[in-house]
Amino acid sequence: MQTPALSEATHPLIKSLSHYSDQELLTLFQRHPDAGQYFAAIYCRYSPLVYTLIRHSARSPVQADYLFGHTWRHVFHELSELDLDPATAPGKTLQSWIINVTAVCINQAELPPVESINYSLPAAPPPLWCYVEQALDQLLPIQRLIIVMAQSFHWSETRISAYLQAEGEQMSPNQVKSELQKGYRGLEDALPEDIRAIYLNDENLAQRLEEGRNPTALEPDLD
């Protein structure tokens, strides 16, 4: 089982950060929550190590990718509170902390069967996945719900409309389609500009979703 290719590692924004220390990247990440390149740089630096640890505990590459993605989600959510100050956390390094988080995720994970996993690592690299989830939280609830039903459940506008009407929300299929497009635009606008530059290139997010490279697909949580 090979470690995953990191296409983002060759992006100029990521390459420009290669000379920063772990502590400097962590500080930049914590001070600039509206920028995604610092987390992406940490991800590129430590992904080979994390994947090497994970691949021995998963029975298949699909499960390994799934656990890898979820492990980096845990890292992302806990990084903002991480303290590596030698005065308060002597001997603690970013590498040792990431190894510990990975070990916890491996030991606590109850991996679903391969056939029930829809996550694709090439389609949704963990940094993009994390920031898309963060952007989803900024949408109107109805737009977030419609996007989840369209992307996670692959429901048509007609089926979404029927579901919403059954729940007391009067919305025609055309209105669903309109809200879906507004949601996609809002989702893309809510992404950090550097994350759009690194992962979307000349595409918009709606195009990426429609082509099946889907960073919004939700999976059962490992918590």
Question: If you had to describe this structure to a student in words, what would you say it looks like?
Answer:
It is a single chain. By secondary structure, this protein is mostly helical. It folds into 2 domains: 7-116, Rna Polymerase Sigma Factor, Chain: A (Orthogonal Bundle); 126-210, Arc Repressor Mutant, subunit A, CATH 1.10.10. The chain is built from 11 helices and no strands. The protein has helices spanning 12-15, 22-31, 37-55, 61-79, 94-108, 126-136, 141-151, 157-166, 173-190, 193-199, 205-210. The longest helix has 19 residues, at 37-55. The two termini are 25 Å apart. The model is unreliable at 216-223 (pLDDT under 50).
**What is the makeup of the main sheet?**
none
Low-confidence spans: pLDDT under 50, at least 5 residues? 216-223
Distance between the termini: 25 Å
Written as H for each helix and E for each strand, in order along the chain, the element string is: HHHHHHHHHHH
Structural class: mainly alpha
**What is the helix content?**
55-70%
CATH architecture annotation of the largest domain: Orthogonal Bundle
In what range is the share of β-strand residues? under 5%
